[in-house]
Each structure stands twice: as C-alpha cells, then as structure tokens.
C-alpha cells in the first residue's frame, strides 16, 4: 500500500502501514538484511526504517543480528505476484538478447511473472504484441521496439488500459524512458575518434561518415550528433570537413550495403566513421575490407556488443573503439524502476545508463571474462 493511499484514508494508521512495509522487506524465513536493503525494498527512508526496526525489535517482531543485520521473527508476508509484460526488440539481435536474459534473471530473483513477446524488429508485430499484453492484463509493460513512428500508437494502447509503461532506448509518449544518454555517449565516442585521428593521421581527415538508423527517430540520432560535435571539439579544423550520412538500419547487412555503395563514389583517402551501433560499425568495416581500403578508415561503434568486442581484439583492427552501454546490466536496473512504479515511489521521467569507452587497449580490463564466455572471434550475423 502506498503512503499516498494512507494519507487519503482517515481510518488507516500510518505507523502500522509503514511497519508492514518494513516487515514486507523480509521475503523468506531466516533472511538477514542490512538497513540499506530494507530501506530499498520497502521504499522507506533509512532514518524511518531504522526507527521502525528499533521499535519492532523492542516488540519482539525483529531480531538484530550482528552490527547492521536484521531478521524478522514473524512469518514473511505472502506478497502479491506481479505480472509484468516484456516486448523484446528481437531475439535475433545480440543487444536485445542480453537485455532479455538480464530481465528474465532479475524477474526470477524477485518472484515476478514475466510475460514475454518478441517484436521481431517489426512495427506491425509490435502493435499486435501490445494488444496481447493488454489482453493479459499485466501490471506494467517494458517495451523495446525501435520504430519512432509507431511509438505513440503502442503507448496509447497501454495508456487506455491504464497500464504503466517503461520504454527501452526509444521514447514513447507518457512512458518512463530507460536507456542511453545518446548525446553524451556520442560525445564520448566522437572525442575518442578525434584523438585517434590526431595521433595516427595528424588530424588530417578527408571525410566523416555517420552510419544512421533513421527509423528510430531523433533521440538515437543525437548519438551521431554527439559524435560529430566530439570530433570537432578535438579537431576544430574538421568544421570544414565533409560529413555524409548513410542509413544502415542498425543491422550489419544493410550497413555493409550502404557503405559499399558510398565507397564506389567516394575517393577520400582518410575517412572516420561514427556508427549508431556495433552491427553498423562492423558492416561498414566489412565494406572497407571488401574494397581493399581498410587502412583508409577508423571506425567507432556503440554498445560494445560481443561481436564488437571480438573485433576489437583482432590485431590491427580499424574498429578502434566502441562506447559501452552494458545491456547485460539492464535487467536489474529496469526491474528496480518497474517495482518503484508499481509501489508508487517517485521515478524520474528518464533513467540513463552509464557509458564507457572500450578500446583494444582496455577491453580485457573492462570485459575480462569474455574468453571464458566464448567471445573470441567476430560474429558475422
């Protein structure tokens, strides 16, 4: 029960409501929790949680174990099982696979039923899946679909059904946004690409090519805008350099074809490439390799996906870096936001992930376990 509900009902005793929330933090018998975890699970401020635990201990309902651990002396409350809908971007895409796997692990750990559907990178299927989740009467939906044009349609379906929505990576009207800080991530990648060009080419660049994902809309486009600004911050003379946009639709095959077509007409000797994601970066790289012009490019991608990381480990690769988004960590973070919404706790309109530049020099430090997980060679998919 939320504190807002308690404040509206004159018959409710707020202190009892708060106490029940503190006791509800204990989910299994014998579980010992620190104050910080009890505060997080109950949504109570630490100072209030401490006072409640002290009082409940005096009443014999809480037992203090050690310096900062508490254990409930009463049987854990049986909590209502939440049903959360999750519309995946597409199970054939590595980034989406990692997000999905993380969400499934987090939901299982929290005892939440996750109703999963696959948007298959298709606007038509995404709309159909929204109808499915509405019929399922889920408590909340986590939506991962790429097409900006249908975002209002999908969001309206949930809004009419009074189902709260979290939108991953692509904003949806009225939804809580979770994902990249696109402009900041672009700045990180652009500044690094500018420094690379300075160090290896003395800053002499003939052309900037940006591999876009147009149907995703304006927010992901800010990733490429940030890259352009970041390059020019480091190499101000690039203000006069020609910048070309090609649309790779965020996938390797289309990006390969778009860059292949561009290279047939471009005579530039030194080209820096900023790609919307790693599949686009790898598609562009394969086009340069096919044309026998690998030495004339330097490419930075986004996501630091397994296939991108595999390429970064190749000796002499011209994929010189990728901005990490850590989708393998999305699950826990998204589910925390979802539970905050369901428990009516304050949630910001946008929750951004942290980004880090991954390069051939630091990849083994940031992702030391790749070899154990079989990420050892570039994935051509």
What does this structure look like?
This protein is an alpha/beta fold and 381 residues long. The chain has 3 domains: 3-72, Arc Repressor Mutant, subunit A (Orthogonal Bundle), CATH 1.10.10.10; 83-179 and 329-352, Response regulator (Rossmann fold, 3-Layer(aba) Sandwich), CATH 3.40.50; 182-325, Response regulator (Rossmann fold). It is 44% helix and 19% strand. It has 14 helices and 15 strands. A 6-stranded parallel β-sheet has the order 5-4-6-7-8-14, with helices on both faces. It has a 6-stranded mixed β-sheet with strand order 10-9-11-12-13-15, with helices on both faces. A 3-stranded antiparallel β-sheet has the order 1-3-2. Strand 11 (271-275), helix 11 and strand 12 form a beta-alpha-beta unit. It is elongated, with a radius of gyration of 24 Å. The protein starts with a helix and ends in a 15-residue tail after the last helix.
Q: Oligomeric state of the chains? A: single chain
What is the total domain count? Answer: 3
Rg estimate, integer Å:
24 Å
Could you say what the CATH architecture of the largest domain is?
3-Layer(aba) Sandwich
CATH level 1 class label of the largest domain: Alpha Beta
> How many beta strands in the DSSP annotation?
15
**Helix tally?**
14
What is the structural class? alpha/beta
Q: What is the spatial order of strands in the main beta sheet?
A: 5-4-6-7-8-14
> Major sheet: size, sense and barrel closure?
6 strands, parallel
Strand content: 15-25%
Assign the CATH superfamily of the largest domain.
Response regulator
The span between the termini is 47 Å
Please name the CATH topology of the largest domain. Rossmann fold
List SSEs in N-to-C order.
HHEHHEEEHEHEHEEHEHEHEHEHEHEEH
Low-confidence stretches: 1-6, 376-381
Shape: elongated
- Average predicted local confidence, pLDDT: 91
As a percent range, the share of helical residues equals 40-55%
